[in-house]
């Protein structure tokens, strides 16, 4: 993993993007503190797997959204 200053990254952006495209991760530093990360994009299979994992981790509490909307409309009419 390459760590590079923002100023140097601006001067060498094309070569940094080529490295990232090959799978490398680049950390951008400002005053020796990490401010950004350049990473290659996820492939479709990876993106879909992480979305499924996220959805599976959600717990629905309370009534459904449609029931909430219906109940709110009923309350407005009163």
Automatic annotation (TrEMBL):
UniProt-listed InterPro entries: Antitoxin_Phd/YefM, YefM-like_sf
One matching Pfam family is PhdYeFM_antitox
The family this protein is said to belong to = Belongs to the phD/YefM antitoxin family.
Function text: Antitoxin component of a type II toxin-antitoxin (TA) system.
What protein am I looking at? Antitoxin
Instruction: Supply the source organism for this entry.
Output: Nostoc commune NIES-4072
């Amino acid at each position: 993993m390459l760590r590079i200053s923002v100023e140097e990254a601006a001067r060498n952006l094309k070569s940094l993007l080529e490295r990232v495209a090959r799978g490398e991760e680049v950390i951008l530093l400002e005053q020796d503190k990490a401010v950004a990360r350049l990473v290659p994009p996820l492939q479709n299979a990876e993106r879909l797997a992480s979305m499924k994992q996220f959805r599976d981790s959600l717990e629905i509490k309370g009534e459904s959204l449609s029931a909430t909307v219906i109940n709110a409309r009923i309350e407005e009419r009163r």
